[in-house]
């Protein structure tokens, strides 16, 4: 089969690799019908995730059709249409029993496209299939469903939920890429008083407005003063979500948050950021980090099927699966191409 493989910093190839096969009784082999590229894949190509070995098939998000299952798989069968979760879960370790699947110590967690071959291929082996695949309702399209493999649960769990967003809050989101925009969508579920999105790209700020942001700002528009002015008491944002993964964005978040507020870091960081405890120690600020657990995926899928989660517009570019290199080129130059999410479909 063909797959997108990593060959060291800055090098990738769409090439022939062996077909996946059931190795363990809990495995499934899935034909990839739709797949997308994540900002984390770009971080891998930049060398920010050194555990990824050359030769690894990248990708951790897909929708597909089950081709084969191991003898221990009970919840899916060949022919089932499924969402492939970005997180695999053994279901038995102490973290999985607490629904903290991202921290699985039984061989799961973020493994696809990281420690085992991933989804940017014609087929993929899914370990722990019972816990890591979700059957899709007939009325949910591949394009809509693939957004629930990672960015929607990540923005919801690691951003909105960890940030303790509540009714009437002022929410600031730094970064208007796919995760930041998904954070706008999921923050609105909690009816905050206002959502402010900060990004240097005016095209992405326009997208944030379309998804429900009340105020959009570039970094040179004094965002700290603007956010304080939005709140009746002038103290700043109740919840601030970092959705970029660069030091400057994280440090801005700590300046935007009010005393007693929450900073929820979602971005993947490849460089150290300065934590200004000399300013923060007295302000009762909660800072959270996290890898998505995808425990919310069934609920989000139900909302999508019921028409309560509007993801239309997040996908800006579509390709055939064999156009993987072109899709990477477009996604990696988002500032020039206007790409938000790119989705590739089986021909």
UniProtKB/TrEMBL annotation:
InterPro entries assigned to the protein according to its UniProt record, in alphabetical order: ADH-like_C (IPR013149), ADH-like_N (IPR013154), ADH_Zn_CS (IPR002328), ER (IPR020843), GroES-like_sf (IPR011032), NAD(P)-bd_dom_sf (IPR036291)
The organism's place on the tree of life at top rank: Bacteria
Domain Enoyl reductase (ER): 8-344
SUPFAM superfamilies linked to this entry: GroES-like, NAD(P)-binding Rossmann-fold domains
Molecular function via GO: oxidoreductase activity; zinc ion binding
Keyword set, alphabetical order: Metal-binding, Oxidoreductase, Zinc
Cofactor(s) the protein requires to work: Zn(2+)
Keyword Zinc: yes
Record flagged with keyword Oxidoreductase: yes
Record family assignment: Belongs to the zinc-containing alcohol dehydrogenase family.
Record-given protein name: Zinc-dependent alcohol dehydrogenase family protein
Originating species: Yinghuangia soli
Record lineage: Bacteria, Bacillati, Actinomycetota, Actinomycetes, Kitasatosporales
């Amino acid at each position: 089969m063909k797959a997108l493989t990593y060959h060291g910093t800055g090098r990738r190839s769409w090439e022939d690799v062996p077909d996946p096969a059931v190795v363990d009784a809990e495995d499934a082999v899935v034909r990839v019908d739709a797949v997308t590229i994540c900002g984390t894949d770009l971080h891998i190509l930049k060398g920010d995730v050194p555990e990824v070995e050359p030769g690894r098939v990248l990708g951790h998000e897909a929708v597909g059709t089950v081709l084969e299952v191991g003898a221990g798989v009970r919840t899916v069968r060949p022919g089932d249409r499924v969402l492939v979760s970005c997180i695999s879960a053994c279901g038995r370790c102490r973290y999985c029993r607490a629904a903290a699947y991202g921290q699985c110590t039984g061989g799961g967690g973020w493994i696809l496209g990281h420690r085992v071959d991933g989804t940017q291929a014609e087929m993929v082996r899914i370990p722990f299939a019972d816990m890591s695949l979700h059957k899709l309702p007939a009325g949910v399209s591949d394009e809509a469903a693939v957004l629930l493999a990672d960015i929607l649960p990540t923005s919801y769990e690691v951003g909105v939920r960890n940030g303790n967003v509540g009714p009437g809050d002022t929410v600031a989101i730094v970064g208007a890429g796919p995760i930041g925009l998904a954070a706008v969508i999921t923050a609105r579920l909690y009816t905050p008083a206002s959502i402010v999105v900060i990004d240097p790209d005016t095209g992405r700020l326009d997208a944030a407005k379309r998804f429900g942001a009340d105020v959009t700002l570039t970094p040179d528009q004094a965002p700290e003063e603007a956010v304080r002015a939005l709140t009746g008491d002038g103290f700043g944002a109740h919840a601030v979500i970092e959705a970029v993964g660069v030091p400057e964005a994280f440090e801005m978040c700590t300046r935007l948050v009010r005393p007693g507020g929450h900073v929820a870091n979602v971005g993947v960081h490849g460089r150290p950021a300065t934590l200004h405890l000399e300013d923060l120690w007295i302000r009762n600020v909660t800072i959270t980090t996290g890898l998505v657990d995808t425990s919310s995926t069934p609920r989000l899928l139900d909302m999508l099927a019921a028409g309560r989660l509007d993801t239309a517009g997040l996908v800006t570019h579509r390709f055939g699966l064999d156009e993987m290199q072109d899709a990477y080129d477009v996604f990696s130059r988002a500032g020039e191409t206007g790409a938000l999410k790119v989705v590739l479909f089986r021909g």
